[in-house]
Each structure stands twice: as C-alpha cells, then as structure tokens.
Amino acid sequence: MAWRNIARNKAYTFINILGLSIGLVACLVIFLITRFELGTDTFHPDGDRIYRLIGKKQQQDRTHLYAMVPPIAPLAARTTIPGLEAVAAYHRYTAQVLAPGAHDPVPAKTTIITESQYFLIFHYDWLAGNPLTSLRTPFKVVLTQSRARIYFGNVSPDKIIGRTLVYNDSLRLTVSGIVKDWTANTDFPYTDFISFPTINVTFLRHDIHLDEWGTTDIPWFSRAFVRLAKGTTPSQVNTLLATLSDGHIHPEDGVKYSLALQPLADIHFDTAVEDGLTKAHRPTLYALIAVAIFILLLAIINFINLSTAMAMRRAKEVGVRKILGSRRPGLIGQFLIETGLLTGCAMVIALLAANPIMAVFHAFLPNRLEFHLLSPAVLLFLMLMTLLTTLLSGLYPAKVLSAWLPVLCLKGTGPLNPNEKGHLRKSLIVFQFATSLVFIISTIVIGRQINYMRTEDLGFSSDAILTIDTPHGDTTKRIQLMAQSFRQLAGVSDAAAQSFPPTTYAHATAPLQYKGEQQVDISAAVQIADEHFIPLYGIRLLAGINLRPRDSAKEVVVNESMTRAMGFTDPRGAVGKNLFLGESPLPIIGVIADFHEYSYHEAIMPIIMMDFPAPLEAIAVKLGTQGQSLSQFKNTLGRMAQAWKLVYPETPFNYTFLDDSIASMYEKEMKTATLMNSAMVITIFICCMGLLGLVMFTAGRRKKEIGIRKVLGATVIDIALMLSGSFARLILIAVLIASPVAWYLMNNWLQNFAYRIPIGGTVFFLAGGIALSIAMLTIGFQTLKLAFTNPAGILRSE
Known about the structure:
alpha+beta; 3 domains; six-stranded mixed barrel; 46% helix
C-alpha cells in the first residue's frame, strides 16, 4: 500500500527522491574523504609512541620547521638520549631501476636508504627475509610485494631473495627481503628500502656525509623516525633534543637551531613543517562535514515541507483508516514505511552516483581515495544514514497526519486545528534560505578575493617568463654560461640567473642591522640574482642604480619596505648607506619599488637583492612574444633545449611558466571557490524544491480565499502580490539571519591574507537580490496559475 501511494504521486515522489539522493550522495562522498584523511597513518601498532625528528630554525621573530635534520643527528640521539626504543635514519632516493632481463629501467620514486631499525618502528608483514638482518650489510634492498612483481613478475617471494637489481646504472643491490604492502592510507608509501651501510662504501657518501653536523645554512636531506620506550614522555625527550646540537652547529648571528619530536598523528595535518608531503587541513575537513550535514538537513526539510503539502490529499484516507480501526502508532508506522521506501530509493541513486561524482571532482579528492561498497565502515555508515534520514524526514509528517480527527478529515477540513498558521513550515523555509544565503555570500566574497589576487598589480611582470631549475648545488659558473646562451637565441628577450622567482613559496631570510643614529635590527628576505633580474621582471627602480656584475663588492639593492624599516621616508636617502650582516657591510646602491616576493597571504617584507654565486639555482627567461606565432614559440623552446644539453647534458630540460606557478599558489583558494559554488547550487536547488512545496501547500489552503477575493474585485496583480509578499518576507528574514553569520565566517577566512578585499554591504544586498529573484522565479508559475483561476470553479460547491 505504501508503494502504491508513492506511485500515485509521481511528481512529489520524484522531487523527494531527488532531494534526498543529493543530500545522501554529498554525505557519502564527504564521509569517504574525511575517513580517508583522518585515518592516515592511524593503523600502526603503538602509533602513539612513534615520532618524527624535526629541525627548528629560529630567526628573530620567525620559526622554520624542517623534516630534514643533520645527518649525524639520529646517531647522536640514539647514543646520548635515554628513553628511545628505536631510532631509524633514512634518506629519500629517486632512482631508475633495471631488473634482470629487462631492457628499460623502471622509475622508483618511493625509494629510501634506511637503517634496519626502520622495521622495528613500523610494522610490516614479512613474506621473505629477516627484519633484523636484511638491512645490516651493504648492497642490500628490501622490496614490497607490489614492487617485487614489477621487477620480477609473479615469482614466489622466497625465490626473489638473492636476485640483483641495478639502481641508477651503477648501484648493484641484492634483494634481501620481501614485505607486504600497506593497504591503509599513509604518507610514507615507500617500496624500496636500501641498506644504510651502502652509503659509506659507494658514491652515495659524496652526497650524504653521515658524520657531519654542518651549519644552519646547509640544506640537509637526512630524516629520522624514533619510537619512544614505554613510560617515556615526549617532553622528556624534547628537553634533551633542544640542546643536542649545541656546540656542534655554529649558526650565523641571530639564528638558533634545535631538534624536536613531531607526533606521527600530526604529520598529515601539520603544514608548518616543510617536508614536501601533501597535507590535509583539519578545519577544511570539519567544514566539509558541516556542509554535508547542512545539505542533508535541507533535503530533509524539503521532504517535510512536501509531505505536509500533500497532507490535504490524504485527509480522507486518514479519516477512513481511523474509522476502520487504525490506531495512531499504526498510522505512524505506515507513513514511516513510505518514507523508508523513498529513502531507500534515494540511497540506491546516491550509491550509483558516488563514483561519477568522485570522477567529476577528482581534482579535489585525495589521490588514493576509493569507494568500496562492501567495506564494513561504509556499510555501517550507509545503514545509519538510511535509518537517520528516514526518522528525521518521516517522523514529523507521520505524527501530524496521524493526529487528525476523522470527522474533520471526512468533512474535508484537514488538520486538527483549522487556524494553524504553518509557522514550523515557514521557519524551515527561512532556515533553508538562510543556509543558501550563507553559501551565496561566501561564494561572492571568495570569488572577489580570488579575482583581486589575480588582477592586482604584483609589482613585476610575469608575462611570457619561463623558470628553469638548474642542478642543485652547482658551484660552477655554468648557470651564467647557460643564461648567456639563452640571451643569444632568437625569440628570447632576456635571461637572468636567480635563486628563485618572485611570488613563490621559497624563503630565504637574513638578520640585518642598520647602524644609523640608533641600531635597527631588520629581518629581510634575500633574493640572489644577477644584473638582468630587475629589468627582466620590469621592477621599477626608484633610486640609485641596478645591480652590477658580481666582480664588484657585495652591493645590494633594497625595496621600499627596507628603506622604511631603516627610518627613511624618501627612498633616495637610503642610497649609499650600509646594512650589516654580522660585521660585513652591505652598501646600498639602489632602491626598487615594493613587489610581492611571496603570496598575498604574507605582507611585503624588507628585501635585499644581491649578486652572490652559491645560491643561484634557477634561470628566468623572458620570451619575445611580439609578433611570434605558435610554431615560432615552439622553435624557440626547441633551441633552448638544445642549448641546455650543451651545458647540462646530465640534466633533463624542464621549465614552468611563471604565471602557472603563481596560479598554483592559490590552488587551495580556487578549489575552495569551486566547492563553494557547487554547495551553493545544490542548496539553492533544494531550497527551490522546498519553496515549491510550500507554494503548492498554500495553493491548496487558500483557494477559496482567493476565489472570494476575486469575486470582491481583486485583480490578478493583487492576488500575485499577496501570495508573493509572504514569501518575500521569508527571504528578507533569511537575509537578516544569514548576513551576520556569513560576515563572521568570511571575515575569519580573509584573515589568512595580508592583502584582502573589504566585505562591503553590497555583497549582502546582491546575495539577497539573487535569493529573492530565484525564489520569485520558482513560485512565479504557481502563483500566477492560482491568480488566474476562475472563482466560479472554486466556489460552486459553497
């Protein structure tokens, strides 16, 4: 009977199922995302005792955290700090691996060189080999099962032991162990584990100096995990780690270096530590959960409104059932069964739509996220969501319908209280539109901020500029030779050697002093570049001269912010003055206009620009695009690749467009905008369906009133305005509720940017206008249809 009643009202059934399926698929996909992210590296036994060793570099008011530590630090920690059950140093190693009988090498980007204690810290199921001895001697490698299949095919693990692999053409290693792959989500999906003693007996020792502490300006590449003994607290170990490097590392003035522990559970979410991993943002995950809950709530509210709108059609059914002996619990059960059937159909649609939705939004989802229907956690979530949605959607309409008096139902009056004003339904509509307005306002503000960041003057030109990274640590003068070769090519306007391009994540700072009337300590960003840098990027020179070739003294060009920090109101006053790096004077020869050295998230800070050979690790090339066709542009890139091979034959020629690099810095904001747009469309769509249900309910309730008004002289416009006015008031109430909530949320979001747009009142008027226009379009047809109804057809039975 429930199914027959559902089939008889096809339009209402379609709207209800569509609304619920949208809410359920949103909840399902967001559940998969949050479960995946929050479950990262939570499967390790005794994971609460596993920590990563990190380095802390404190420079005046800035603290930089690194996952890389001095190569000797893990050994020093193991031998001097009590309470460490295991310490495992490791180095990431990118290689091309040649298996026996293979013609082409296989890239291995998930390779590490590590100590045997790594397998004491992290648990693996061993298919072959011994975890205690497999990595104790040189020229050994342990593979995961999936990696072993890539190299050797479907060979039994015990038959792979003893076979040889060649890494990067010259490193011959013997397989000493095979372990099962981790199936859960992890930030450390390593597949090739090379024995640590291999370093000291191969060419690797030239890059990895295991017995050195170094200084704070040396880029370390060592990493380490530790496992605390039971009863040892992180604070006890951190106290000892804070002084472990004292007397070994001799930092520059104003810089303090120390070591610390980072819990394994924090690694996936801690963006403060520089480690190259893809991070998740806990507040964003919680925001996604809130969005899913709101979307489902809107769908449930929509169901309630449509169910009460249909109530007039079922009044006589309720009356007959009660006269024939049905009791209220039985009627409630009947209506809940109908709701359960609708929810079940909506859940089936949601399950079918989950993978297509995830494919559409694949750029916003974690790379390894998959939907496994038969997973116990997923099945439990689906059952709970189906039950909860059924109860929330059906309980209130069921209680209302089952409470009607049979006499009033059979007379056609309907509700128990004929004077009932529908305050709950109107409140639900206000809640729906208030939620939609929050999304509309947020979308407008986010869109304006992104447009501001993309169109605002950066202080330099980024058009047609390529960035090409040179080999790290190249102390030769090949970079200058390469830049000179590029400048001589047709189609190239200019080329400059640099440490990194403007507007980048890269940071290099130095503690400086200006010794004027009073000494001023200044933390400055450092840009190492040659004399071509400023003209190539079109940075305005305000005073003095450009950088000169490096054969001259250590001269610097500074920006306006630096001159203000020094106390000068006129930039020309800083020319000829000296800044001091320790005891070394740095004469200022020029002042440039401020430009965004970093993203809009950070304020422009004092900058010094100097020509110093060691940190030059990139080349900027400005292409001459004037009058060039696409084929000429490709020819220019081809000639650049040929020139590159002559200077760097061992390094592939790779380039990035500066515009693309800048755009990638705001990828997170762009994704937020896209998700917000999607949420806005969904919530507006569901709200419109709910509003349509309320209009249909009103049409059924007020037919006779409208007939009488028309008989007494009311025009079509009068009737339309009367019906629309009540809905317009609901929208205005929703605007008043949503505006302060949206302002609070967006104001907090904008605090992440040092340069941001103001939230003006026009945003709220625009959002209210959009919501009102959509609402009027939704109810317009039903309102006009009711206004044009012939009163004779309505009142003939009176």
